[in-house]
Design goal:
Helix content: 55-70%
Mean pLDDT: 93
Low-confidence stretches: none
Strand content: under 5%
Shape: globular
Structural class: mainly alpha
Radius of gyration: 14 Å
Number of strands: 0
């Protein structure tokens, strides 16, 4: 999580008493990461888009959707700009599939 995202989540959780360095504390890292992932899921309703937004930011994903680069109704990973983001989304989908089968 980057510092800008940390500040936003801290504000949303009303935990502005915490500092970015607190992300090295597992309790806070899990709390913040879980909140952000839940928010992204509610916003995009897509594992692919939520993972892409976690990796590249909501602004990037919103831009892709607004410009029509990515279709929110039929997300194709190959349409996601940036090889690093595509790789990240693929990793998340593999893990999601593995955990779903247990």
């Amino acid at each position: 999580m980057i510092e800008e995202s940390f500040d936003w989540v801290a504000w949303r959780l009303e935990r502005e008493d915490l500092r970015f360095e607190d992300m090295y504390t597992p309790e806070y890292s899990i709390m913040f990461g879980s909140y952000l992932l839940g928010f992204l899921w509610e916003r995009y309703r897509s594992v692919e888009l939520a993972a892409a937004a976690y990796h590249s930011g909501m602004g990037a994903v919103d831009g892709w959707l607004e410009s029509g680069i990515v279709d929110p109704e039929n997300v194709n990973i190959e349409d996601i700009p940036g090889s690093n983001t595509r790789h990240y989304v693929r990793k998340i989908l593999r893990a999601y599939k593995n955990y779903s089968n247990r």
